[in-house]
Amino acid sequence: MSKYFEELDFQATPIGDLSLRRRHIFALKQDVLEILLGEEHLMSDLFTTSEIALSTLGIAATRGDNLDIAVGGLGLGFTAKAALDDPRTSSLIVIEYLEVVIDWHKTGLIPLGKTLINDPRNRIVQGDFFALATSSDGLDPQKPHRKFDAILVDIDHEPDFLLSPNNKAFYETSGLTQLRSHLKQDGIFGLWSDALPDQKFVEHLQNIFDEAWAEIVTFHNPLQDREFSQTVYLARK
To answer: Which of 36, 77, 85, 111 has the most CB atoms less than 10 A away?
Structure first.
């Protein structure tokens, strides 16, 4: 066991104060690693099932081999790691807005960091995912107009509960239509959400993509000793 509480880093960022901390949960007899934005919990390594499912469900829905995958949002790295764990993944690009989060991975403050950094298939890019996704050049600054077999996004809490109001345009018809153009034929768009499925959003996706559906991901919450459900939205070009 480490210290009962330890703030590993604290940085002011363009979207607010960001803190990486480790604390011991006595009821579970284990340490957890957390990222906070101000007083708001962004993520914890205690709950990673749905972040991993974003990759496993998204890649499972793709067709073929030698897949080119893009992930929006690095966080603690569980979505990216799950993408690299799939043997069909030949390349991965992870786009992270906050340089400090990338630095946490590079320096090993985040446990999965070295694994992600050292995988030759993976490249982490500092940039605004939403700006890149809604641009004509696309997600890879080194290869304009590059297309992907899957684009998987875990940034906002829900499609209508955003970290920044600037993200709103991405979820509108024009934004998602532009993202669709960065997918290969039969490509998959995956989106993580902290809530149960919103049927209106599924219908919104169905109006833009050729097929869209929601997968409920349920896991046990040991802090509350109950089942908890989140959503992975999937859409096919």
So the answer is: 77
Contact (CB, 8 A) for 215 and 46: no
Rounded-to-integer distance, Cα 63 and Cα 218, Å: 25
- Taking residue 15's Cβ as centre, other Cβ atoms within 10 Å add up to 13
Alpha carbon distance 109, 114 (integer Å):
9
Cα distance between residue 73 and residue 80, in whole Å: 9
pLDDT digits (tens, 9 = 90+) for 20-44: 999 998 887 889 999 999 988 899 9
Q: Which domains does the chain have, with CATH numbers?
A: 5-43 (no CATH), 46-236 (3.40.50.150)
Mean pLDDT of 215-227: 91
Report residue 100 as tokens: 């400090």
